[in-house]
Amino acid sequence: MKRTSKQWLRNPDLYAGYAFIFPWLLGLFVFSLFPIFFSLYLSFTDYDILSAPQWIGFENFKEMFTDDPRFVKSVKVTLLYVAVSVPLRLCFALAVAALLNMKIKGARALRSLYYLPTLMGGSVAVIVMWGQLFGINGAFNSFMRSIFGIEISISWITDPSTALGSLIALSVWQFGSAMLIFLAGLKQIPASLLEAALVDGASAAYRFRRITLPLLSPVIFFNLVMGIIGGFKVFSEGMILTGGGPHDQTLFYVIYLYENSFRFLHMGYGSAMAWVLLLAVSILTALVFRSSSLWVHYESKGERGA
Amino acid sequence: MSAISKKRWGNLSLSAAVWGFAIVMIYPLLWLLSSSLKHTTEVYSQAHKLIPAHFYWENYVSGFKGFAGHSFFLFFQNSLYVTIFSVVGTVIASTMAAYAFARIRFPGSTFWFACMMLTLMLPSEVLIIPQYMLFNKLNWINTFWPLIVPSFAGGAFFIFLLVQFMRGIPVELDESARIDGCGRILFFAKIMLPLIVPAIVTTAVFKFIWTWDDYFAPLLYLNSAEMATVSLAIKSMADPTMETDWGALFAMSVLSLVPVMAVFIAFQRYIVEGISTTGLKG
Question: Would the CB atoms of A278 and B123 count as touching at under 8 Å?
């Protein structure tokens, strides 16, 4: 059937559809599409919000990679943070989920308890509390002194050698969401498979490695991707606890981006950094997806895509 | 020892270990609660003790003095204002868009749906500078508008969640309603909305928690004390350049967690299911 433009315009679904998506569509243009292209433009300019942007070509990107040690530092710090905190958090999440999946008294209550740090962890109150807990006179040092007799006279947050570690600990502590996702995944594993292996005399470790892990690999994969993306975007924890210090030891990428954009008003440079982040996240996600066929096991290959 | 009792002992010690580790994990939160009831001098001299020597309830009074001459009530009011409008805006715009994507076959729907899925993965850092310029042009800096208005465009993740949920509702319902002369708007309001309440609750709950806890947007757009949200106020009161009354600050910290905790207790099922089925970050 050939449709003329008049018929097309007379289609009532056209108006209904656009009426319903209108608020979102307007927002898409104003808050996403315009900003994304404009920030791409800004990344090739020198811009300080007070005067008009000056086109400088690839200068921002050149400076970033050849002439800005703090940028390099921020990349290193962020990569280290992601490389340590994400696998650790997933290990904790998986271990606790596996334990909770066994027949333990009060598993539901335990699930809520383990989730609490994640629920609360996003709030400034808890981040500030973390800083005091591991401060020089905080509960941690106090514990070490009164119970083990170990005198520690550093603040874990402000000492350059432990600052990043204490932020990693804060992130690992919040394994609750990953744990809930693992728990849902574990419930999907057919009990008959595990029972059959048990009858065949497979040990618990063997069953976990050969049945549970492969069947859980799509969920591990999902948690890994989300963890990596979230890790690259870490901001509040560092901004509130250390402000990027001491000596840039916790200068996360987004903190440096924020500093450039809103403290030094190098908004062109900040936009360029944001685009590098966008590209890095996209490439990394694509790489993880590509590699997934090597280790992610899907039950029915045809039906479920990555 | 017989095999059975050995197994029971194994189970028991396992339970004990899992419970013990759980206590260690929530210890920092308990410490926060206990410190909020200690006199500031006791917070750090007896940091490892969970039970305060004296319950110092005055912290909850002195905390409300706030800072820069503004009572902490004001900060709660600001946070509540921003959060409620954000939640309302997100729910309205997201359910509307989701309904169109799930049920109306209009020209361009697949294209816009794909656009929406793309924005899901977009790091918001790419958007903040132009958004800031826009709000600056509109003279919206140091108002609540930049924190509220974008919510009225809905959220990609929530739209996706709602679309998935609506797809589970039989299409026959739409057809029989149409035969009975029920228009789209009436159908959306009277039939669809009541059926998708669980997904709407999930959306509202997550948006509530995220907005209540948000630090980045208030930091960026609000720069005077009387506009501060709770997150900003707590950060300002903990400023190392100020003399901090830690007992009072911890008291306000505990109160700032109450709304999130209340939402969790009331809607725990939605939170747990939201995370485990869609991977929403809690």
Answer: yes
Q: Answer whether B106 sits within 8 Å of A18, measured CB to CB.
A: yes
- State the nearest Cα–Cα gap between B143 and chain A, in angstroms: 17
Contacts of B191 (CB under 8 A, 6+ apart): B173, B177, B182
* Residue B206 and residue B106 share a domain: yes
* B279 chain-A contacts, CB cut-off 8 A: 177, 181, 222-223, 226
What is the percent of chain B with per-residue pLDDT over 90, rounded to a whole number?
A: 57
- Same structural domain for residues B224 and B90? yes
Task: Report the residue from A8, A24, A270 with minimal CB separation from B93.
Answer: A24
Q: Give contacts of B 222-251 with A, CB under 8 A.
A: 230-232, 234-235, 238, 246, 249-250
Phi, psi (deg, nearest 5) at residue B73 = -55, -40
Q: Per-residue pLDDT for A166 more than 80? A: yes
Residue in chain A closest to B43 (alpha carbons) equals A138
**Chain A residues inside the 8 Å CB shell of B101:** 21
Total domains in chain B come to 2
A102-139: pLDDT as tens digits: 878 888 899 999 999 999 988 999 999 999 899 888 88
Cβ atoms A143, A126 nearer than 8 A: no
CB contact under 8 A, A20 and B99: yes
Q: Which range has the worst mean pLDDT, A25-34, A247-256, B59-68?
A: B59-68
Query: Which residues from A are below 8 Å from B159, CB to CB?
Result: 24
Contact B31 A133 (CB under 8 A): yes
Structure token digits, residue B116: 């929406």
Same domain, B79 and B184: yes
* Cβ contact, residue pair A112, B125, below 8 Å: no
Contact (CB, 8 A) for A36 and B126: yes
- Across the interface, which of A105, A147, A281 has its CB nearest the CB of B15? A105
With tokens 């020089």, the residue in question is: A136
Q: Give the sign of the dihedral formed by CA B65, CA B69, CA B71, CA B76.
A: negative
Q: Which of B200-204, B243-247, B263-267 has the lowest mean pLDDT?
A: B243-247
Quick one: CATH architecture of A50-110+164-295?
A: Orthogonal Bundle (1.10)
Give the residue numbers spanning the domain of B115: 62-278
Ramachandran assignment for B154, one of left (phi > 0), alpha (psi -120 to 50 degrees), beta (any other): left
- Cβ B208 vs Cβ B264: under 8 Å: no
Query: Which residue in the set B14, B28, B252 is minimally distant from A104, CB to CB?
Result: B14
> For the segment A48-77, what is each residue's pLDDT rounded down to a tens digit?
988 999 999 999 999 999 999 999 999 999
ipTM > 0.95, yes or no: no
* B135 shares its domain with B242: yes
Same domain? For B19 and B158 the reply is no
Q: Count A/B contacts: CB-CB distance under 8 Å.
A: 269
**Chain-wide mean pLDDT for chain B?**
89
| Same domain, residue pair B53 and B68 | no
Q: Do residues B134 and B244 share a domain?
A: yes
For the stretch B103-124, pLDDT in tens is 998 999 999 999 998 888 788 8
Burial class (CB in 10 A: 0-12, 13-18, 19+), A197: middle
